[in-house]
Write a structure and sequence with these properties.
Length: 175
């Protein structure tokens, strides 16, 4: 306390000003360091743990600030995979897994049934799920969207992936 007192025992306005300036400069430096660390963390993809035993299927693109990768699971239904990613989402956002109205949930498209234009063997998806993991900071984009899709058949192209589950990672980050 004697730091801010003058020789007569009164409060020194000059010393209080210097002390406030030092504290202000330290706060500005601390804020700058924090901001740089947060931006640096968002200069890499937001990694979300891959479903167990999923295998790399293909990497569609890998750009400086985005990538899209497909994985497959041979031994799990889309619903099993969604339950796994919903648990990760609950943990990521620190939300109550038993609350049916929690804010961050994997969404099904369409909400029920199948898409109206779906025809078996056409190569179209009957439905898919989407889970958004996002860690934005000011303008810094930092997200991973995970889409879970059932395997489909395309008679015209001659392939049949029914029974497989596809897991699509769409990642974007600030460079």
């Amino acid at each position: 306390m004697s730091i801010i007192l003058n020789r007569e025992g009164g409060v020194s306005v000059f010393r209080v000003g210097v002390l406030a300036a030092v504290i202000g400069i330290l706060a500005i430096i601390g804020g700058y360091v924090y901001f740089q660390l947060e931006n640096d963390r968002r200069s890499k993809p937001l990694e979300v743990e891959l479903y167990p035993n999923a295998e790399l299927w293909s990497q569609v693109y890998d750009l400086p600030t985005s990538r899209e990768v497909y994985y497959i699971s041979r031994d799990a239904s889309p619903e099993d995979v969604v339950m796994y990613y919903q648990a990760l989402l609950d943990d990521f956002y620190d939300q109550n897994a038993t609350d049916p109205r929690r804010e961050h949930q994997c969404r099904r498209f369409p909400e029920s049934g199948i898409f109206p234009d779906y025809v078996e063997g056409s190569g179209n998806l009957p439905y898919f799920y989407s889970c958004l993991f996002e860690d934005a900071f000011f303008d810094a984009e930092h997200s991973t969207v995970i889409e879970i899709q059932p395997g489909i058949a395309n008679d015209a192209e001659g392939f049949d992936n029914t029974g497989l589950t596809f897991i699509r990672y769409i990642q974007r980050w600030t460079g």
